[in-house]
Amino acid sequence: MKAVITVIGHDTVGVVAKVGTVCAEMNINIEDVTQSIMQEMFCMIMLVDLSKANVPQDAVRARFDELGKEMKMQVTLTRQEVFDAMHKI
């Protein structure tokens, strides 16, 4: 299963590294990533593959919720088909 991870918040050092580390710990493959800084706000979107994750999906979601709290940023995990449906015009 593929999913989209979005990260939004004030720019700080190490955001990409922290999210990447959590992905590696759970055996989640990062397939694509884009990021930008808009007026000191960090915005990142990652396309990830959860098919070989070593923990259940609810544990993945809980870990990213926890990471968002640790970094004081909004970190959201959304299944790709849901993300695509939400962003159709």
Automatic annotation (TrEMBL):
<protein>
    <recommendedName>
        <fullName>UPF0237 protein INF35_00085</fullName>
    </recommendedName>
</protein>
<dbReference type="InterPro" id="IPR002912">
    <property type="entry name" value="ACT_dom"/>
</dbReference>
<feature type="domain" description="ACT">
    <location>
        <begin position="4"/>
        <end position="82"/>
    </location>
</feature>
<comment type="similarity">
    <text>Belongs to the UPF0237 family.</text>
</comment>
<dbReference type="InterPro" id="IPR045865">
    <property type="entry name" value="ACT-like_dom_sf"/>
</dbReference>
<dbReference type="InterPro" id="IPR050990">
    <property type="entry name" value="UPF0237/GcvR_regulator"/>
</dbReference>
<dbReference type="Pfam" id="PF13740">
    <property type="entry name" value="ACT_6"/>
</dbReference>
<dbReference type="InterPro" id="IPR022986">
    <property type="entry name" value="UPF0237_ACT"/>
</dbReference>
